[in-house]
Amino acid sequence: xxxxxxxxxxxxxxxLIGGLWKRTKLPVLDRPGLRPTPDRxxxxxxxxxxxxxxxxxxxxxxxxxxxxxxxxxxxxxxEVLLLERDAALATxxxxxxxxxxxxxxxxxxxxxxxxxxxxxxxCFELVFIDPPFDSDLAMxxxxxAARLLVPGGYVxxxxxxxxxxxxxxxxxxxxxxxxxxGHLWQRDE
Length: 189
Prior knowledge:
The chain is an alpha/beta fold and 189 residues long. It has helices at 39-49, 67-74, 87-100, 112-118, 138-146; strands at 13-15, 25-27, 57-60, 79-83, 105-108, 124-129, 149-159, 169-177, 180-187. A 7-stranded mixed beta sheet has the order 5-4-3-6-7-9-8. A two-stranded antiparallel sheet has the order 1-2. Strand 4, helix 3 and strand 5 form a beta-alpha-beta unit. Helix 4 (112-118) packs parallel to helix 5 (138-146).
């Protein structure tokens, strides 16, 4: 039996760390498996990707609080699609997007794996994969996301363990922050 590491309980909010909506606070609902990407992980990720995502199409496949997708929109992404199956979380993200006037953002109440399976190929420059922490969806979701990326596009995967990229993706960067491993993989050209 393997023991899954867990994050410390959240304090009820996270903040956006860059771009147009820098310092905006996002509420964190108490939901099973929900553990928002910490500020320092998002800061490192956007240092890797660059601060300006102008023109990028982004998918946040397991949106949760919406922190990753909102961070991308805050940094100029042209289109950001957030998928969240939990109705309360999807409603909350929509309310935050409306409050910010985030017109590039669209929130769908969908199951990420099913949506990615039926989505057209090569339609995103960046896909975020941060499934519920107690699930084993990271690798299947990353594999599904690989075909959604344009050549040279990126997928960022968060998981409770170190992972190797699936076929068609190669490792660019990785980090460990507490119990979380973050992997930035790029689609082959």
